[in-house]
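Bug: token stream looks shifted between consecutive jobs. Job 1:
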Amino acid sequence: MNHAVKQFNRRSVAVLGIESSCDETAVAFLKGDEVSFRLLSTAMATQQNIHKEYGGVVPEVAARIHIETIIPLVKRILGRRVPDCVAVTAGPGLITSLLVGVHTARALAYIYGKPLVRVNHIEGHIYSNWLATQKPLIKNQRHRLDRIRFPALALIVSGGHTELILMRDHGKYKKIGKTVDDAAGEAFDKVAKIVDLDYPGGPAIARRAAYGNSLAVPLPIPMLHSRDFNFSFSGLKTAVLYRVRDQKNHKTYSEMFRDDICASFQHSVVTVLVKKTCAAAKHYNVKSVLVGGGVAANIALRQTLAKAIPQLPCQPLLFVAPLKYCTDNAAMIALAGYIQFRRGTFTSPLFCDADPSWELP
């Protein structure tokens, strides 16, 4: 066992987490020991309003804003505190955005003479579930590491990823399902554009869907009966495009139709996500089901999972990331980095790089 891990076993460890994989600049500070951890402080600078006028994230613009905001956030979070290690999102993501976070983390780790942990962004979304609690989040609340039992199944649904990952223990992953084309979050954004709604598409569609009839516009539920755990959303997006085009051609495109097609689209996405997750959980006889990523904030998805998961024969516990930790954030990166540091998985600041297509596992 190396010196850093021995140190960890004697006292608590402080981790500085940095996230800049897309258009959120985020920093968090966390302390943990062998059995539990506390999230002490977080800060985020969002670029959502800036990219809204473009209808999506512009990588070069995102990187420039990361450069402007990341150091002030680090100063605000750290103050006079010195971390025991620095954790940073190294991929997947936009390379221009990732590099800002990675080079900042490298510099900080080098200055402090501390280890650096490369965190996979998807792994971060998985660990956001350890922040889930039955009670409202309280500052400095202590979370136990053993509250989630293995094997666990993680459903990660975001703008760039839709994956089912079997987790047998910390750091032991097996990807058992993924999207073969568009991610669920990407489909939400594209459909929102088709029906003339603002970016980001997920919240915009959910708001309209609340007033619509999910059975009013028949839409496909892609790959619902396939013999695997993969997903596909490109065909569903195209079906929405054709229905909207027909309505506009016949001059019957109305606010009621927009509500109905948003509700129908959301219903199709939620149905296949829940059905595939339940099938995988049953197949692998898991003890926990974890849900993370931006689309995990969708209320219809959360409610449908909450009804379906307890009915499975294996009776797994359901954990869904708190709303504030569904989207990209540094708390999940600090936590994933803390777990890796605890296991002795870290690197020198001189040898950390960014990988925009880094796959987990």
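Job 2, same session, no restart:
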Amino acid sequence: MQLPEWTKPALLGAGAGAIALAIIGFSWGGWMTGSSAAKMSSKDSMAAMVTALTPYCVQKSQADPNSTDLLAKLKEASSYQRRGIIEEAGWATPLDAEKPVRALADACQIALTKDL
């Protein structure tokens, strides 16, 4: 079986067009792989959760009977030690969670120490 003479250039053009379309789509078109979309979604949902729960963390700190002592410790602590103090106090642990959320502790310490 013999193919027509125009078949080879047509197939090469279609292949080159597909490659160019993929390069343009992923570079400038906003296309992304499934794993990139999952990472972006996870990051966005964590940011939304931290934004929603920061007032909860601040309120939990105000309701804590040891809050004056812990806030004094926060004032004296360096910025990288503050998150640990908030995590140990349990202020960054949402309801029904076993462990504190690190990003929530960071946001909470920023909210609590902006007036110190």
